[in-house]
Amino acid sequence: MTAPADIYHKRRWDGWREHWENKGGNIDVPFECPYSDRITYVDEFLGAWHSDSTLDSICTSITLEPLGDAHTTGGYKNVLFTAHYTPEAEATETNKVFSDWRERWEGGGEGISIGKGFRWGSKTGSVFDEGQDVSVVKIFPTATITLTGTTSLFTPAGKGYVLNTIGKLNHAAFTIKGVSYTAKHLLFLGGDFDEQANDTSLITYRFAYRHDNTWNEFWYPRKSGGPGFSDLIASDGSPVYDSDVFSDLHPKNW
Questions:
Q1: In the chain, where does DSSP find H-type helix?
Q2: Which residues fall within 8 angstroms of residue 79, CB to CB, at 6 or more apart?
Q3: Nearest residue to 31 via CA among 19, 41, 21
Q4: Closest by alpha carbon to 94, among 51, 63, 49, 124?
Q5: Would you tell me how many other CB atoms lie within 10 Å of the CB of residue 108?
Q6: How does pLDDT run across 203-215, given as a tens digit for each residue?
Q7: CB of 55 within 8 A of CB of 19?
Q8: Distance in angstroms between the alpha carbons of the first and the last residue of the chain
Q9: Which of 68, 212, 208, 196 has its CA nearest to residue 138?
């Protein structure tokens, strides 16, 4: 993502600074923009690449200084908007989409006791007796996914989206870091918001994934055709877990 071009014509060359080291350059680029638009530009610039792609620098912070007299009619009209760029290797980028977030992916398994509905040796063998001194547990693949990113777009609406999505499944296939998770196999467990000193928020989301079955399918020993997973529904037809559109968890949609 690059910063918007519509304020480049307001760039102020007095105050431009560059500091170069082996790992890249720290660059301060001053602009002048309307006071009323300053937060819009903050959200657009934070996490954006410098317009000169050869510099490999990301805007990591913004400094705002009001211009003019605050006591004039209507208050401040313009601000000096200075974008501070940091080398990519040092930058903590503001991430507005999951593809930019850091992921912790833990593969594991869920152990389910089976046996009832099975036979010994062959399809015509003796029926498995739960009273026998045998414990049968099958491991089904699962994963726990933790996503961490930063955003300057943290709003009360963001909290609302998170609360409304906790305990729900992905309504449609949902992609995280290049992996598409089949509908209703991904359960949203919740999120943490940690406000930072630079007016950004560190966000952590947690998901649980079942590979072989949806979260509304449970092991059923008496299933027609043999033991396996089957949907469990209430008398009114509603499932155990509701599903929702996970795209509302993207800060860019708040």
A1: 38-45, 156-165
A2: 32, 33, 34, 35, 38, 64, 65, 66, 67
A3: 41
A4: 49
A5: 12
A6: 899 999 999 999 9
A7: no
A8: 18
A9: 212
pLDDT of residue 221: 84
Q: How large a percentage of the chain has pLDDT more than 90?
A: 31
Query: What is the pLDDT at residue 99?
Result: 73
A 10 A CB-CB count for 138 gives: 13
Q: Are 52 and 110 within 8 A, CB to CB?
A: no
CA dist list (Å): 46 to 3, 58, 76, 146: 8, 8, 23, 23
**Tokens (6 digits) for 105:** 């992916």
Instruction: Give the predicted TM-score (pTM) of the model.
Output: 0.62
β partners of residue 174: 181
* 198/145 Cα distance (integer angstroms): 27
Token pair belonging to 145:
């996914």
What confidence tier does 1 reach under pLDDT thresholds 50, 70, 90?
A: very low
